[in-house]
Amino acid sequence: MMQSTIVYIRSVELSLSLVPVTPKGFYMEIRSATREDSESIAELHRAETGRQPYTTGIFGQVANFPSAVAFDGSKMIAFALSQQFAPDILEITDLLVSRSHRNTGVGTAILAHLEKQAYGQYASLILCNSILYEAPGKRLASGFYERNGYFPAHETGNTTVFVKSIEKD
């Protein structure tokens, strides 16, 4: 049975202060992605990046590895995809939040959902943060990953490799 979480987003905690997201906030559903979500993921990717996604890869990732999608009503607003990097390491390959929902806590919520699925199956999560293409408003998300417990393991100047341990203490 698929688990789904309904979250009411009204404010985000930043440096111990609450910042309003929208005047009324919004309800968000977060759940694991399914094969049926593959086309919506691809559509959101195209709309936000202007690039054609590798749709066969999306289908395989949601079918075989931890993933997350977020909806504001019936509209998909974010997704996170992963794949196995090594027997005990999961790579987060894509995390995208629509421009209209950035800086509202959506990214943190879908990342947490994906991490929860990975816990117990993998010892660590890894991801590469770099600008592979130019797009309006696109920027590195290093601060986002650091706030969510990832630490930089390697930097090249254009790319930072982040790692997070999810083993039991």
Write the layout of secondary structure elements.
Layout: E1 4-9, E2 11-14, E3 17-20, E4 26-31, H1 38-49, H2 55-64, E5 68-72, E6 75-86, E7 89-97, H3 106-118, E8 124-130, H4 142-147, E9 151-155, E10 159-165
Parallel strand pairs: 7-8
Antiparallel strand pairs: 1-4, 2-3, 4-5, 5-6, 6-7, 8-10, 9-10
Detailed description of the structure:
There is one protein chain. This protein is of the alpha+beta class. The protein has one domain (4-165): 3-Layer(aba) Sandwich (Aminopeptidase). It is 24% helix and 38% strand. The protein has 4 helices and 10 strands; from the N terminus they run E-E-E-E-H-H-E-E-E-H-E-H-E-E. The strands form 2 sheets. An 8-stranded mixed beta sheet has the order 1-4-5-6-7-8-10-9, with helices on both faces. A two-stranded antiparallel ribbon has the order 2-3.
